[in-house]
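Quick review question:
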């Protein structure tokens, strides 16, 4: 089956954060459609982890995205057609305890990616992946649109808002779309996704991984914000959006060098408690207890408006939240009970949908 008009076949694709949850899924998908995948990331920080489980054969470079010299050398040696920048410090609560690391990784790291694109002029496209939390959250019911103000209460959210501002500054200063194919040949876009779920995530302080870890230890997981709403989506949903957007950038369609939201349909936005109720019905080992007393601020109401991606890019969610949650829990059940990895099957099912 032809995917993304075969644009990635034979292309060299550099992924930062390829050892992470989303990055490892993206690397597999790109390899399946014929891309020459190059990875740059820190080593995996959990055991088990999705990257090691997949055992994919492609060039891996271990390093810190804050090390401009190291990353620049990798870019020079592999000469990528496109860079997908996923390397990040991705946790809100961790950012409260480690703000400098968070800002260094998410802001300086993003600047380093764009600086390398400025110095290595053969790169055709760069996609900077941020988050739904990059917006100034005013607890509004309607979803945020791409032109809404960047911001962030906590260090993580603020760092991602900053990453978007850095991206826009580089785009305006060095990769202005009005000067495309005259003073430069690189298109820069950013992608903002919601709360991503799926098999193979063992990160700390994330809802699904936390309840899975609890299930394996026969422990009850404490839930701190049951009424908080998030734009939950299966990992393959935003990755599909990233790849569709990358296709347009590689084709030189400069009008796509902007910011883009990828999230569920408005009616699909669920509370934490609703997610847990669906998940616990899939596996009776999952047990949770709600304790709403916590001290660190986190947004309660958050959703994305995805009309732009639907109308201009032709992207839309394929799986409902219920299907996404079921497939996620099924992935972990098969892994722990039968040592089976359903990643390949999930991608195949998603493509057929």
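Suggested answer, residue by residue:
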């Amino acid at each position: 089956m032809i995917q993304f008009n075969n644009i990635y076949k034979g292309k060299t694709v550099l992924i930062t954060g390829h050892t992470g949850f989303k990055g490892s899924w993206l690397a597999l998908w790109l390899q399946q459609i014929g891309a020459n995948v190059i990875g740059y990331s820190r080593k995996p920080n959990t055991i088990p982890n999705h990257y090691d489980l997949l055992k994919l054969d492609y060039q891996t470079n271990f390093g810190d995205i804050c090390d401009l010299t190291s990353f620049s050398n990798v870019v020079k040696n592999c000469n990528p057609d496109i860079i997908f920048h996923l390397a990040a410090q991705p946790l809100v609560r961790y950012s409260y305890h480690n703000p400098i690391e968070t800002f260094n990784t998410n802001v300086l790291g993003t600047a380093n990616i764009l600086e390398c694109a400025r110095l290595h002029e053969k790169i055709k496209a760069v996609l900077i992946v941020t988050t739904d939390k990059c917006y100034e959250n005013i607890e509004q019911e309607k979803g945020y649109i791409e032109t809404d103000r960047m911001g962030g209460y906590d260090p993580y959210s603020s760092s991602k808002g900053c990453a978007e501002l850095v991206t826009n500054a580089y785009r305006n200063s060095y990769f202005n779309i009005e000067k495309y194919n005259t003073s430069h040949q690189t298109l820069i876009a950013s992608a903002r996704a919601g709360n991503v779920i799926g098999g193979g995530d063992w990160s700390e302080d994330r809802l699904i991984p936390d309840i899975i870890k609890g299930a394996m230890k026969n422990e009850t997981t404490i839930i701190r914000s049951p009424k908080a709403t998030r734009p939950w989506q299966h990992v393959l949903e935003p990755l599909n959006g990233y790849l569709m957007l990358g296709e347009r950038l590689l084709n030189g369609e400069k009008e796509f060098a902007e910011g883009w939201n990828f999230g569920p349909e408005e009616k699909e936005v669920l509370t934490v408690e609703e997610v847990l109720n669906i998940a616990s019905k899939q596996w009776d080992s999952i047990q949770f207890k709600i304790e709403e007393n916590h001290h660190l601020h986190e947004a309660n109401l958050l959703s994305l408006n995805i009309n732009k991606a639907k109308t201009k890019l032709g992207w839309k969610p394929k799986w409902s939240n219920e299907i996404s949650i079921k497939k996620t829990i099924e992935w972990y059940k098969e892994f722990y009970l039968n040592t089976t990895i359903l990643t390949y099957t999930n991608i195949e099912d998603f493509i057929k949908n």
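Why it works: The chain has one domain: 9-352. The two ends are 13 Å apart (CA to CA).
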